[in-house]
Write a structure and sequence with these properties.
Elements (H helix, E strand, L loop, with lengths): L4 E4 L7 E4 L6 H7 L35 E5 L6 E2 L14 E7 L6 H11 L5 E4 L1 H6 L1 H9 L3 E4 L14 H18 L8 E2 L8 H9 L3 E3 L3 E2 L8 H15 L2 E6 L3 H16 L3 E7 L7 H10 L10 H4 L6
Parallel strand pairs: 3-12, 4-9, 5-6, 5-11, 5-12, 6-7, 8-9, 10-11
Antiparallel strand pairs: 1-2
Helix pairs in contact: 2-8, 5-9, 7-8
Function: Is involved in generating a small heat-stable compound (Nod), an acylated oligomer of N-acetylglucosamine, that stimulates mitosis in various plant protoplasts.
Family: Belongs to the polysaccharide deacetylase family.
Keywords: Hydrolase, Metal-binding, Signal
Amino acid sequence: MRIAAGLVFASSLAASLLTSGAAWSQAQRTAAAPTPAAAPLPAAATPAPQSQPPRAPCMNPEALGVGRTVEIDTTGGPGFGFEHFKDLDFLKDHEVVLTFDDGPWPENTPGVLKALADQCTTGIFFIIGKHATYYPEILKQVYNAGHTVGTHTWSHAALTNKKLTEDQRKEEIELGISAVKWALGGNSPAPFFRFPALQHPPEMVTYLGTRNIGIFSCDLDSFDFKARNAQAVIDVTFKKLDKLGKGIILMHDFHKHTAEALPELLRRLKAGGYKVVAMRAKAPVQSLPQYDEQLAKVAKLPTVSQRPVSSVVTTVSE
């Protein structure tokens, strides 16, 4: 479903926006959500944040690879993606940015990671906070592979919903950041954020600007959430990409068809002379302590035992 509405842009990004995006049924998400899996790190004892791990050296000379890497200063909350933001046209002809929403998720996210690794290339993963608490180990795989990790709210709530108060909208943003940080063992994500369904309430655009968080729309939507099969994902993506010649591509590692389509999609990018641009943040986002504390209450995060080994394991025979 596509949603359009006139919005007045605010703060340092003052401009006229036309909202549109791939809306998902929240009920589908809630129904699909499993019981959170046990996690190896206690919420109260996380290590100090580290810089983002580097990508592994590429051993495939025929791989798509990474054409160039850009560093983003997110001061003031810059916007990216011509669907909504026209000011920052930084991509050259035949350059693309690969982005994936709604993960992490079993099988599908690992499938996407394998396809990217096989082609020695990279993307930005916009993570749902709840999903991060369900599958922290999968999210760590994304991070440790050198991909950029951004956020996508706590529960994928539509922040244009008039039933939500301003505090509740901020909570969706901030709990998402705290959850991803927790799942990464205390390592903070990039200050990159994508609104659910690409719906940008002006007051939240302003708020993200005060938090120095970059906002991502897209240049083209793969509509993989509507695809009947992997080929449909490929066909829709290249129909739009060949017309535009470049762009930020919106996909979802939550979806099976996306994981299935990606190997061929990446091969076609290579064959078509496209180059992948990696986007890195100048500095990570800083979570807010009150939301770090709130996360432990609302998410019922699993923890590991703090007892010494001798009080847990006793040798009874050898």
